[in-house]
Predict the structure.
Amino acid sequence: MNSIFRINLKPIGYDFVFITMGYICLYFYSKYASSNFNPIPISAAILVAITLIYIIPIGNNKNNYVYQNKNALYPFIMVYIVLLSSIFILNKLFSLNNSTVRNFNPVYLLIIQLVISASIFICYFFKIRITDFNWHISRKSFAFVIIVFIVYRFIFNFNDIISGIINIRQILNLEFIIDFALKAVINSVYPAFYEELLFRGLLISGLKGFELSNNTCNIMQAIIFGTTHIMSWGEPSCLEHLLALSIQIMIGYLLGKLYFKTNSLLPCILFHGLNNTI
């Protein structure tokens, strides 16, 4: 059989088991949640997106690499603590979370975002520079990310598109496109740049420094990435809230697959920024 169709089934097995476990968690969440949450669209969207990551070729680039340094775990831990502390304090003192963010002064939000983002530069104290990571993105990689994102969001929002809640004509409106582009740029700076450098950059680099496999690193970073969202929607409500974290964990897993496919942070930032804009 032609080598182009030879796919290593072992990592696919990891993917299937991981996404299945995520779906099961979301299924039970749908039983506990007060809203009519359907776990199928998000699970299917992520599974299809991962499949596209495997089968769409983007070519090899000699400059593409995954930075490996176990010392990267030290700044990661410090920044991770800063992030969790910030989320806790903002929730407790200002009731600021994903549900209330639209009610806050955008200038105050920008200041908060800049302060949190600045914490990432702790890595320089450990002699780890931003330039140590690969930021390359080719035209093929850019097109690849856009294709994966469009298919992912189409499946995720399929029911809303069919029911007419999402109007395709409104999406193609020039005013909407300009507004979307501006918001995508803002979201690509924060939280996309910050979170990608923290989790797909520092965390994966530190884990790879211990010679762990890509699949092991991806599973670990995805779970840790998901835990940062434990208070993102307000006070955690025990089991129900923990089950809901499966969404962020699976998205983190998808971003990890994208990182190992491209060996670059910029495609992950692009996907993350676009996803947060919708």
In short: Confidence is low (pLDDT under 50) at residues 1-6. Residues 174-208 form the longest helix (35 residues). The radius of gyration is 19 Å.
